[in-house]
Amino acid sequence: MLERLNTESLPRLPADVEKPIYDRSRLTPGIVHLGLGAFHRAHQAVATDLAMQASGDLSWGILGVSLRSAATRDALTPQDGLYTLALRDGGPGGEPREQLRVVGSVLRVMVAAEDPNAVLERIAYPQTRIVSLTVTEKGYSHEPATGHLRWDDPDILHDLENPLRPRSTIGILVYGLALRRERGLPPVTLLSCDNLRGNGDTLRSLVLAFALRVDVGLTHWIDTHCTFPNSMVDRIVPGTGEEDRLRIAGRLGVQDAWPVVGEPYMNWVIEDKFAAGRPAWDSHGGATFVRNAAPYERLKLRMVNGPHSTFAYLGALLGHQTISQSVQVPALREFVDAMMRWEIGPTLKGIPDSGLEEYRRRFLVRVANPALPHPTSQVAMDGSQKVPQRLLDSIRDRLRTGDDIRRLTLAVAAWLHYLHGEDELGGRYKIQDPMAARLAKLVARSEVAARASAPSQAAHRRAIVLAEFKPVFGDLGRMSEFVSTLATHLEALRLHGVMHAVEAAT
Fold it and tell me: Which of 180, 188, 195, 465 is most buried per CB count within 10 Å?
């Protein structure tokens, strides 16, 4: 039985494994992070680790919060918060390469579902200066098409009645801030690191909307004193598998219960609006601070997340298990390449063509990474929360200028077709989406409408019913060109399959 990775075993790790060289006993907590999943630990936590190591400012330790599951806490607590980041890519000959770093910035992990009041107390801790989030799009309890808080969300309803035991991200934030205000503590920065359109602005509007139901004075305090920087984050981080654990343990010589795996590429752009200071993320943590993150965020959502989802849905329908498997199909790669060149790129005004070209090329190399198998199911999940900003915003821009939308709309049709839960090989899969039940009813209703229509109108009627689902599509269901293009693609996927549909749209 291997020894466990922890503070005592850290000095004995192999020389080729990077590790924190600062004194972790001097770390103090400055950040509370909600959603301590693989992405945060491969991105912001390692940036914080590197920044503290370079600057010597050890006041930015992270208190991680898992909102539901105790798995991360149970894995990292015996390891004193330490874990391994494995960065993988292909060498010159295509052989897998891997660089290991043990990350030391996480001090403690808590589970909100077990003791939500303890999380509120940590947000109200005097040394806390930043509360950051990676809770995924669905963690904001909002309607993707409008960005408004969903007042019918069960967790939001619960939190309005139970201020000491909140369950939602927004409830936890608001009641934690209420404690800070009540105790006369300074304001904090609330930093969203999720793939949302205007993530900081969105978080601010949701927090203020909830706070207004709680206390008008609290709303004014938050609005006046706290800051909500917009940010853009980028790194491909698949889920960790058992083979990863075994391989990493073999290299470390100790057991790491929950390492994370990612690509070497990392990007982080943040608006420099912090209420109480920040780590030196820009000097050694890989971050760039800007006045306005919107252009960077739009570029990433449209030129990375949109194509990534497209590979996932088309590939999953073909029975592919990983994104790299889909990228290796020439027709799929050429289709996504053309979508990025001719439909997404022109919507990104103000970015030089040379910059877009480099971004496009780099994306296609990243997703083809042979050493980093990224499951299509992971990218495809939560489509109702992702599709609006990843694909529909570009479609709206194209429609306003009267430009072609056939490739983007095929990507949307692929998501809708994916909701049937069966690939072209007859394989079944589960739809993982916070709106899964509503989407299942929507798909069933569209099929009933199609069967009740004349054969020549069936495809169009199916598309109308689907596009009228306002939580995702908003006003797009009233745009005839979108609906008719969607109908064509849905019918091609239904009758002839992915490869025919792709060939017709390229």
Answer: 188
288 three-state secondary structure:
strand
Q: Report how far Cα 67 is from the mean position of its chain's Cα atoms.
A: 16
Q: What are phi and psi of 31, to 5 degrees?
A: -125, 130
Helices in 254-317 by DSSP H: which ranges?
Answer: 294-300, 306-317
The dihedrals phi and psi of 271, each to the nearest 5 degrees, come to -70, 135
For residue range 354-406, list pLDDT tens digits in order.
889 999 999 999 999 989 999 999 999 999 999 999 999 999 999 999 999 99
Q: pLDDT tens for residues 317-350? A: 999 999 999 999 999 999 999 999 999 999 998 8
Q: What is the DSSP letter of 17?
A: S
Give every CB contact of residue 449 below 8 A, 6+ residues apart in sequence: 461, 462, 464, 465
Say if strands 231-234 and 267-271 run parallel, antiparallel, or are unpaired.
Answer: antiparallel
Tell me the C-alpha distance between 466 and 63, whole Å. 42
Q: What is the DSSP string of 227-269?
A: B---EEEE---PPPPHHHHHHHHHHHSSB-SS-EEE-S--EEE
Tokens at 465, concatenated: 């019913």
- pLDDT attached to residue 171: 98
Tell me how far apart the alpha carbons of residues 223 and 90 are, in angstroms, rounded to a whole number. Answer: 47
- In degrees rounded to 5, what are phi and psi of residue 436? -55, -45
**H helical segments located in 135-233:** 154-161, 169-182, 199-214, 216-225
The CA-CA-CA angle for residues 152, 433, 362, to 5°, reads 125
0.90 exceeded by pTM: yes
Q: At what angle do helices 498-505 and 406-418 cross, to 10 degrees?
A: 160
Separation between Cα atoms, residue 167 and residue 139, nearest integer Å: 11
pLDDT category of residue 286 using cuts at 50, 70 and 90: confident
Sign of the dihedral defined by the CA atoms of residues 297, 298, 300, 301, in that order: positive
Check: CB of residue 150 under 8 Å from CB of residue 142: yes
